[in-house]
Write a structure and sequence with these properties.
By secondary structure, the protein is of the alpha+beta class. Helices cover 60% and strands 14% of the residues. It has 3 domains: 101 residues, Tetratricopeptide repeat domain (Serine Threonine Protein Phosphatase 5, Tetratricopeptide repeat); 75 residues; 60 residues, SH3 Domains (SH3 type barrels, Roll), CATH 2.30.30.40.
Length: 257
């Protein structure tokens, strides 16, 4: 067998295995949806998790998995998978709406620290897209800027030159803003290490040991931010500014630390 024949065989084998793999994933997703439609919510969860076991993820998968857990009244998994879905599709209205309903399942009512108007506006805009989304938007704006500039350069009439010039300035500003938002979102993702409490009730300590004093108590579904790690403990921070130490096994990170 020649080298070319071996190469073609490898490529064909890879394509066939990839196609089979994709078909299995699609079948599992459909099976999960059918179980959910017929009220077999635990079986739906099992089907969706089998897809996750294959290292496949999507906003739709996390959304459906969260919905199934919601029906089972599993507080922590519901909040966790809605958060995962929002990471991939932050502007999706259905995910945001259901995630808001899931907030009512939680026991802890934590008021966030006040933010200024500009900070709130920037955060709301950043959440419209993922980091990749903002990066792609900036690339599109750069391409449009180049096209508009070329249109300005080659245009003969004054009206067209003004139109292309104005358009180039607008898309350039949008491109700069998109790059800025992409960088801000990336920096925020690098600094923030969100996690969800998975224990029904956990005591947060003032130091990373069981004999230290109690700082406060949290319940399942509460979102925290991991500041640092120490052996079997994580130092966390709440949106109201409180900090403390919690056992690693009592929370599940939304991102890799």
């Amino acid at each position: 067998m020649t080298k070319i024949s071996k190469f073609i065989l490898v490529v064909v084998t890879f394509l066939l295995s990839f196609t089979t793999y994709s078909q299995q994933t699609e079948l599992l997703f459909k099976a999960g949806n059918e179980h959910y439609a017929q009220g077999r919510f635990q079986k739906a969860v099992d089907a969706y998790k089998r897809i996750l076991d294959q290292k496949v993820e999507s906003a739709a998968l996390y959304f459906n998995l969260a919905n199934a857990h919601y029906k089972l009244n599993n507080v922590a998994p519901t909040v966790y998978y809605y958060e995962k879905a929002l990471q991939l599709a932050p502007a999706d209205p259905d995910i945001r709406n259901n995630a808001a309903f899931a907030e009512n399942m939680k026991i802890d009512a934590i008021e966030p620290l006040p933010k200024n108007t500009l900070q709130e506006w920037v955060n709301s805009v950043i959440q419209l897209f993922t980091i990749d989304g903002w990066a792609k938007t900036s690339i599109v704006c750069i391409i449009l800027f180049v096209l508009a500039f070329l249109g300005y350069y080659f245009a003969y009439s004054t009206i067209k030159k003004r139109l292309f010039f104005t358009s180039s300035i607008v898309v350039l500003i949008l491109g700069i803003l998109s790059v800025s938002f992409a960088y801000t979102a990336f920096a925020k993702a690098q600094q923030d290490h969100p996690a969800i409490v998975f224990t029904s009730e956990v005591e947060v300590k003032s130091e990373p040991n069981l004999s230290s004093t109690l700082a406060f108590t949290l319940h399942e579904g509460t979102k925290v931010f991991v500041l640092e790690e120490d052996s079997e403990w994580n130092r966390i921070k709440l949106i109201d500014g409180k900090t403390g130490w919690i056992p690693k096994g009592d929370i599940r990170l939304l991102n890799n630390f």
